[in-house]
Design brief:
Rna Polymerase Sigma Factor, Chain: A; globular; Arc Repressor Mutant, subunit A
Length: 191
């Protein structure tokens, strides 16, 4: 969906207010897109399965749009984290009842939200730090990292989508990942 530049410059609060007033899906789509990578990250953390996490993002899109209208939300980022976590815990409860909870990852996730030496910090702190840090990456790195890790695109797909050559894509992903890790660690340690 192509959202005009004017909508993308609105704050989260403005997007929520306009969506509540007009029920125009473009406002919600812009808001949700801003946080979709975080939603996917939380789903991966709890559900430990790429397909289940993708389904979770789609299911949450529908339920969040309804909840957004009926709830007073001060901080969308914090609220969406709690809603996503609760959704995942509900899914895990369902799986436990059905006897299908898996003890290990069915697919490895190369990029982890929780580096080993920040285990003392909450996932919410890490996600909020990740959100800020992605905005600090240069545009090329942010685009490549987002496509590769959060949209699960291959190097070739990222190359096709961005127009960068393969070496540039690999470099942007490697440098972006390193910059994100440094930024997240620094951001969390400041708190």
């Amino acid at each position: 969906m192509n959202i005009p530049g004017k909508i993308s410059s609105l704050s989260d609060q403005e997007l929520m207010e306009r969506y509540k007033k007009k029920r125009d899906q473009k406002y919600f789509a812009e808001l949700f897109t801003r946080y979709s990578h975080l939603i996917m990250g939380v789903c991966m953390k709890y559900l430990k399965n790429t397909e289940a996490s993708k389904d979770g993002v789609m299911n949450l899109y529908e339920s969040i749009s309804d909840k957004l209208v009926t709830n007073k939300i001060e901080n969308f980022g914090g609220w969406i984290y709690v809603v996503t976590k609760n959704y995942c815990l509900g899914e895990l409860r369902k799986q436990a009842k059905e006897g299908v909870v898996e003890n290990s990852l069915t697919e490895s996730m190369e990029f982890e939200l929780q580096p080993h030496h920040t285990n003392d910090y909450s996932l919410e702190q890490q996600i909020l730090a990740l959100e800020k840090c992605i905005e600090m990456l240069n545009k090329e790195q942010a685009k490549c990292v987002s496509l590769f890790y959060f949209k699960k695109k291959s190097y070739k797909e990222v190359t096709n989508l961005t127009g960068f050559n393969l070496n540039k894509v690999k470099s942007n992903i490697q440098n972006g990942k390193r910059n994100l890790k440094k930024c997240i660690e620094a951001s969390i340690e400041k708190e």
